[in-house]
Design a protein that fits this description.
seven-stranded mixed β-sheet; 27% helix
């Protein structure tokens, strides 16, 4: 006998709600097969079978609240353990229970569902990309089938087993974690999964029942924050329970009721000759939404300065070959700017802070976001603890993040938690810009193109490599004096790089 235990749920998470069991008592299970999903107020967790055997007992039913370490059920080890559950089953259910192990043992009749994986904290849905295979194609185990695009990262879905593919969610469809998007059947059983989409769609039409629907911690949080009426939310969860996706969907449907004038969106204008209409990707939609939210939330202001890059360029030119040979990475300008930014943040902590309601959170860590342009759009991976890195460490970190961004391999952790952002439009030839804050941060530094310009130096006109710098900041927390001081400090550290290296 092996107990199925509630796993650790993460820091500050004290309980979870049983989602839906994928097996019932008496069903055979395989080791590491997903049995049940737990929903917390932060993430969804999958609980797998600890051993091969039979699910002899379910102790926590769908919708119940459990704590870490609680016993959810029991698996009886070995094939012989199947006899007990079968004996306890009713006469009506006995034939079904007997057929389950038989079907599982027959390769040609086995069907494995392809489900949307958990896509990370606060990610409630994604958009299906283009399937690399079509229904009826034979696929190998772990072969990449499709990519699901969320508002943060792209998630790859591979074949859970070898067999024949049946697709249930077409390209462009919006899907949620745990939703079945297809299935794999062994050769000769491709027709069996065809009914799965229809069966999966049935629960969606089931309305919420009862005057007091059960709400999981995650759902309670969404309902409370958005002043939703639980009785008015259509439930698609097991036993008529409201899922987090149901609550999030209700937010959008509730808005038009509060503002009838905005209920009828303007019809898209007809396409003209030589025009092409392309739907925005989820990443591009998120970029647009977050940038507009940043403009609407913060009191944004931009201040400018210019920096003479003569000394930095000379230092880089003198040591770039030795630096690359010693550290295995090229010496660029970003490491000098990052070092200067970190030192300026030490001196002007308000630029490294954020507003939370009526509080100011001063951050004693320096995680610098580096804006990277990719084919799919702009992303901002975070270089952690930049104050503890050498120039070589900064260059290596930025190179690794840039490669991961271009290859679409960034993780959610690499995109969250930055305290300040640097964006370099100069790589594309930009002379000057006013960057938009990466909310909830309070500052972003814009680098621009280096241009040879005539400058007055000690009473003489000389040609110097000059770069405009732009600091956009949240005027609610950063005063003009602090912003100008911050930018002047960066200018001083770049025009005399020895000061940064000597921490002066």
């Amino acid at each position: 006998m092996a107990d199925i235990l509630t796993p650790a749920l993460g820091e500050s998470v004290a309980e979870a709600t049983i989602g839906k069991w994928t097996k019932k008592a008496g069903d055979p299970v395989r080791k590491d097969e997903v049995l049940v999903e737990l929903e917390t107020d932060k993430v969804s967790l999958e609980v797998v079978a600890p051993v091969d055997g039979v699910l002899s007992e379910i102790r926590a039913a769908d919708g119940e609240t459990v704590t870490p370490g609680a016993v959810l059920g029991v698996v009886s080890e070995g094939a012989s353990a199947a006899a007990a559950p079968k004996a306890e089953a009713s006469k009506a259910e006995a034939p079904k229970a007997a057929e389950a192990p038989k079907a599982a043992s027959t390769p040609s009749g086995e069907t494995v569902a392809i489900n949307v994986p958990t896509m990370g904290e606060s990610v409630a849905e994604g958009s299906m990309g283009t399937w690399l295979k079509k229904s009826g194609d034979t696929v190998a185990k772990d072969e990449l089938l499709v990519e699901i695009e969320t508002d943060k990262v792209a998630v790859e879905v591979s074949a859970p087993a070898a067999g024949v593919l049946t697709i249930a969610a077409e390209a462009g469809a919006t899907v949620t974690p745990g939703q079945q998007i297809g299935s794999i059947a062994a050769s000769g059983a491709a027709a069996a999964p065809a009914a799965a989409p229809a069966a999966a769609a049935a629960p969606a039409a089931t309305p919420a029942k009862g005057d007091a629907p059960h709400l999981s911690p995650a759902v309670q949080r969404v309902v409370a924050e958005n002043n939703l009426d639980p009785k008015a939310i259509a439930a698609t969860g097991p036993k008529g329970n409201i899922t987090k996706a149901d609550a999030l969907a209700a937010i959008g449907s509730a808005a038009p009721k509060a503002a009838p004038a905005a209920a009828a969106p303007a019809a898209p204008r007809p396409d003209q000759p030589r025009e092409e209409r392309v739907k925005m990707t989820r990443l591009r939609q998120t970029i647009a939404r977050r940038l507009k939210e940043s403009q609407n939330t913060a009191a944004q202001l931009t201040t400018f300065n210019e920096v003479d890059m003569t000394e930095v360029m000379a230092l880089r030119s003198q040591y770039k070959e030795v630096f690359e040979k010693r550290h295995g990475v090229k010496l660029g300008f970003m490491s000098f700017f990052t070092r200067a930014v970190v030192q300026a943040l030490h001196e002007i902590p308000a630029v490294n802070a954020e507003i939370d309601g009526t509080d100011i959170i001063y951050k004693n860590h320096y995680d610098i976001g580096i804006a990277v342009g990719t084919e799919k759009g702009l992303v901002v991976p975070v270089l952690r603890d930049a104050d503890q890195l050498s120039l070589a460490g900064i260059e290596k970190g930025i190179a690794a993040l840039g490669k991961a961004a271009r290859d679409g391999e960034l993780t959610l952790d690499q995109l969250q938690g930055g305290t300040f952002t640097i964006t370099n439009g100069g790589t594309y030839g930009s002379l000057m810009s006013t960057p938009i804050l990466n909310s909830p941060q309070s500052g972003i530094l814009g680098m621009h193109n280096i241009v040879q310009r005539p400058m007055a130096v000690n009473g003489e006109v000389k040609i110097r490599p000059m770069m405009y710098l732009a600091l956009s900041y949240d005027h609610r927390i950063v005063d003009g004096k602090e912003a100008v001081t911050f930018l002047v400090r960066i200018k001083e550290l770049l025009e005399d790089p020895a000061r940064a290296l000597l921490d002066l």
